[in-house]
Amino acid sequence: MLIGVPRVQVLKQFGFILLLTLPIPIIAQVNPAAPESIDEKKIKVSTASGQSVVVTANPLASDAALETLKKGGTAMDAVVAAQTVLAVVEPQSSGLGGGSFLMYWDESTRSLTALDGRETASAQVKEDMWIETDGKAVPWLKATKSPSAIGVPGTTALLWKGHRQFGHLPWKDNFHKSIELAKKGFIPSPRFLRSISLAKRLGINHSESFKSLYLPNGSLPNNKIPFRNQKLASTLSRISKGGVNEFYRGNIANELIDDLKLISNGKNEIKLITNEDLANYKVIKRKPLCRKYKSWNICAFPPPSSGGVALLQTLGTYELLSKNNVSESSIKHWHLLAESLRFADADRSKWIGDPIDFPVPIKGLLDDNYIEKRVSTIKSNKATFRPLPGKPKGIELLDLASQPRTAGGGTTHLVVVDQYGNVASYTSSVETVFGTRNLSGGMILNNQLTDFSFVSNVKGKPIANRIRPNKRPLSSMAPVIVFKDDRPVLALGSPGGWLIPHYIANALIGTLDFQLSPKEVVSQKLLSVQPNYTVLEKSGDWSSEDNNIYQSLSNQGHQLKYSAFSSGLAVIKWHQGSWHGAADPRREGKASSLQVKKNP
């Protein structure tokens, strides 16, 4: 049955779901699980095919990446070009004031690299920073506005390190388009304007810099006049010339620290990042998490992301549960997917965090015997509510508590394959839409420290994702590259906060098990879960006469809700001698391709 309260009305405004119970006064509420508004009217899916393919969340970023490839650049050069453009045209989702994860296949060395550019907490933070004087946790919306929420940005460092290892073109050449767009302007897209309205709903009165740039004279930018960000143009220009040192040790760093001090207004209780924090930031090269799924090898990002572990657990569970072939439209598929997601979520809520604090039992969580044991408790025709975390090997010295889900939505994903055979899968974020809504040098500053658990322990048991100095908050970002016979055949990822591995699991099963094309995959209806109910994408056909999935799930005990999902899947797949890409129609992404002429 559909969970609700008597006389509930569901309204949609600026991308929010508003629950109104009459006759109580109407109060609009933000849904922190999925605050991004989506383009429900968009029907056409952007697709492309060729030897080189780019899929990003914005047409201007895709064009910039493709132009880089035309000049002989690598997939890494394209990532730099696309991300710097996204910082200009999609600042609500990512930028140089945020953090990123990169999965990169280097064809020349036939090796897979995972680079962690996640933001870090300042060396000054305290574990009770999100606890108010009355002992209660700071409300999420209030926390997103605080300069205490700003982590040391990692995106610029990741782009620099990735480019030094994998780039071909000069560093500065990858900045030409972003500098031009910031200086000369671009026509604001409907999503760009919706996101500004959404930021206003989240709260912007604390940020004069945001209001003056994005809401001049209190109004949205004109959708027919080029939108310019001259300060960001200057910042991008300086980074293009001075590289990583300019950002972390030069004038940009000094201006950032000065701006933060002004924002904090001298309040001692606000713990800000420092020049030392910036100078000490390091991108970490991590070992990719890879696990077999049927005849494929799925490689995802390791902790501090929980997304990769959750995704691989979900697929392992689903594979065992669906041994007897299931079709994409069968009730069995949707039930088993929901159960697989829910059990994986229970584990990541308890056992995963930045490994510098507590050891993460990755081997135990992905062990075949452990997953088989978890599967043995799942019923093939009855829903499970609030499954407990399991007890994998490696937790013998860990006595941890589970944490509630984190919120967020200001994230982007892009995928690139170049003419040399290199493949990049890259997810980047500023956390909430427009981060803290604070700016420095035209850059949006993240609120990534709200991804930590607001409480450090429960009944004396510590939480793996507690706040600690120099620690990286738990993430759900999960860039993925899939291999078959030791060759990359699929790359994908998505924004979406906690739901990222849910979206990707839907996409991987659709692609690998049901042989859907990238276009079909990004267009298919989505299912997600909460601990005690199952969520169906409200625009999907769940109640057809021939196959009433809604009723069947309900009969199996699933408590059901409808929701508008804010996925932004970017997918490229190798098929019949070329790469095929597609962008999620729920956003404004674009797939582009470059046909490469081969020598006879």
From TrEMBL:
<dbReference type="GO" id="GO:0103068">
    <property type="term" value="F:leukotriene C4 gamma-glutamyl transferase activity"/>
</dbReference>
<keyword id="KW-0012">Acyltransferase</keyword>
<dbReference type="GO" id="GO:0036374">
    <property type="term" value="F:glutathione hydrolase activity"/>
</dbReference>
<keyword id="KW-0317">Glutathione biosynthesis</keyword>
<feature type="binding site">
    <location>
        <position position="451"/>
    </location>
    <ligand>
        <name>L-glutamate</name>
    </ligand>
</feature>
<comment type="similarity">
    <text>Belongs to the gamma-glutamyltransferase family.</text>
</comment>
<feature type="binding site">
    <location>
        <begin position="475"/>
        <end position="476"/>
    </location>
    <ligand>
        <name>L-glutamate</name>
    </ligand>
</feature>
<dbReference type="Pfam" id="PF01019">
    <property type="entry name" value="G_glu_transpept"/>
</dbReference>
<keyword id="KW-0808">Transferase</keyword>
<dbReference type="GO" id="GO:0006751">
    <property type="term" value="P:glutathione catabolic process"/>
</dbReference>
<keyword id="KW-0378">Hydrolase</keyword>
<dbReference type="InterPro" id="IPR000101">
    <property type="entry name" value="GGT_peptidase"/>
</dbReference>
<feature type="active site" description="Nucleophile">
    <location>
        <position position="411"/>
    </location>
</feature>
<protein>
    <recommendedName>
        <fullName>Glutathione hydrolase proenzyme</fullName>
        <ecNumber>2.3.2.2</ecNumber>
        <ecNumber>3.4.19.13</ecNumber>
    </recommendedName>
</protein>
<dbReference type="InterPro" id="IPR043137">
    <property type="entry name" value="GGT_ssub_C"/>
</dbReference>
<feature type="binding site">
    <location>
        <position position="118"/>
    </location>
    <ligand>
        <name>L-glutamate</name>
    </ligand>
</feature>
<dbReference type="InterPro" id="IPR043138">
    <property type="entry name" value="GGT_lsub"/>
</dbReference>
<feature type="binding site">
    <location>
        <position position="497"/>
    </location>
    <ligand>
        <name>L-glutamate</name>
    </ligand>
</feature>
<comment type="subunit">
    <text>This enzyme consists of two polypeptide chains, which are synthesized in precursor form from a single polypeptide.</text>
</comment>
<comment type="pathway">
    <text>Sulfur metabolism; glutathione metabolism.</text>
</comment>
<dbReference type="InterPro" id="IPR051792">
    <property type="entry name" value="GGT_bact"/>
</dbReference>
<keyword id="KW-0865">Zymogen</keyword>
<dbReference type="InterPro" id="IPR029055">
    <property type="entry name" value="Ntn_hydrolases_N"/>
</dbReference>
<dbReference type="GO" id="GO:0006750">
    <property type="term" value="P:glutathione biosynthetic process"/>
</dbReference>
